[in-house]
Amino acid sequence: MRLEPKPAPSLAETLLYPVGAIVATLVIASLLVLAAGASPFSVFALVARGAAGSQFAIVETLTRATPLIFTGLAVAVAFRARLWNIGAEAQLYAGAVITVVLGTGLLPLPSFLLIPLIAIAAMLAGALLLLGPAMLKTRFGVDEVVTTLLLNFVVILFVSMLLEGVLKDPTGLGWPQSQKLIAEARLPRIIQGKRLHYGFVLALVSAVVVWIIMKKTALGFEMRAVGHNPEAAFFAGIPVNRVLAKTALLSGGLAALAGFSEVAGLKGNLTLDLSPGYGYTGIVVAMLAMLNPLGVVAAAIFVAGIFVGADAMSRTAGVPSYIADVMVATALLTMVVAILLSRYRLRWA
Amino acid sequence: MTEALEILFTASFWVAAIRIASPLIFATMGELICERAGVLNLGIEGIMTVGAFAGWFTVYSGGDLWTGVLVAALSGAAFGLLHGTLTVPLGLSQHVVGIGITLLATSLTYFTYRLALPEVTSPPKIEPFQPLPIPGLSKIPILGEALFSQTPLTYLAFLTVAIVAWVLYRTPLGLAVRAAGENPTAVEAQGISVSGIRIGAVMAGSALMAVGGAFLTMSAFNSFFFEMINGRGWICIALVVFGSWRPGKALLGAILFAAFDAYQVRLQQLTGGIVPYQIFLMMPYLLSILALVLVARRATYPKALMIPYQKGER
Lengths: 349, 314
Known about the structure:
Helix content of chain A is 72%, strand content 2%. Chain A has 13 helices and 2 strands. Chain A starts with a strand and ends with a strand. By secondary structure, chain B is mainly α. Chain B has one domain: Orthogonal Bundle (ABC transporter involved in vitamin B12 uptake, BtuC). Chain B contains 13 helices and no strands. Chain B is globular and about 65 Å long. Chains A and B meet through helix 6, helix 11 and helix 13 of A and helix 5, helix 11 and helix 13 of B.
């Protein structure tokens, strides 16, 4: 079998490939639904209704999409420069920890000062957390995939230690959870009485900002050049290591905003189940979006819809909600194949 | 302080170290085979999860223990085939595909578990492999006890290292595998298919990873629970680098690592809660990162690692 390059696809064609990947994913998921003894059509209809069939469902999907937009952007930025950041989960928790440290009464400031301050500090924590593995990569040649993966476990244990130690809520009846944020540190809700909060707006703004950085700035150009061919970029005079360090700071900072937004916008405090793997799901989101920052928003809403819809479906149809995780993982694999097929023809020879 | 040192001279400590090392030995050998053929297999964490479940579930459904090991190996090989197909002939990013395989294998396992055992709160136990002391040898103080009073699956782990080393360095097949990871063009020039060698290596390696996972459910914890692999797969990737892609060195690395792990558990009991237990639990992961940094400068990666091969291209 050989791969032959083919001409760049048109925009319409480009959009066809993700659709093809999603169709393939649905076909594979149907087999599992059949194995569970249910009808694929009614199950997928239930998932769709649970994800977007009512105002409640839509609000829930957008709420769930919020952290995924941040982690998806973090991964998209890093992967574009071929910095394999698999540590968005850890960076998310770093952002969440800073949010709790600064937001539970340490700084008696009004909202308009306190919230931006916390957000920036959270980003800084996530940025520095990824700078370590990036430096180990550029200085010592240590593969960042393994170090970022291993750091996920270290950071989650560290958070567990904090929640049973210095950050433990004394009124929490012994549960490992932090104190609640003060009112001034909370992100307001977009609609009174609904869970959707201004973290979602921040996520949309971040996507636009990242899009501008990637498309319109010198840094964005350098990141793409480094990702495309680091040696050529080096010979073209691009400071590859410095670009990778900047990429790490941006990527880590974005992932940390997911933690900030979940704590300050949704939960109000920090527990060990803050993220059900948003960092890892961010990889799928970024790939489905073909690493395009604006595409990340659409992909995050789609993936969030699958999770929210599957939860609702599972309650009525009895198919385990893990079907959502299977679909998301399958979508990642079908998507990389689809991207390949958009660029190459397969020839049997 | 002397208590902390005395631990090192107890047989029970070394027995535990060898037991902890066993699943790591299987999975490290699996990853080593893949990487020697030129393919980084980040599916390892998920494939270990599949193996842990498949072995346990086979026994739970009435199969015998060795059938369980076989089923685990076969399900690992199946995911290896998927990984190999996507990364070798299609040449897709080994990073992205590997993470995808881990996510897919893990979620499929959890889905199947929930489907097969709805509404169980505590996972059912199985009758695991029993220790099989080797007559005579197991009576040698400390060393003999540690090595020769283990379960058959541990003996199989050590045997696997010997077989992997022998095949890699003493057979034409091993030469082809090593060459596929160093200089694939030369392999093709011999009329051997690089794709065939690489896919085969990933399948064999994935089968070993799955058996490593199965060790946990069939020879250590006796039941399957979520997130039980707990990063062991990623640690094995570090162990392969630490062992500079050599089976013998990787084996030593795995035992050294397991000894540290067994030691921290005992140290945790000694310190009696003064130091938060999470500090001890972090050690294995931090140690792996440290090991990577220490060997990074003189690490000699297989030259064609992560480089897809296209016939007729150079």
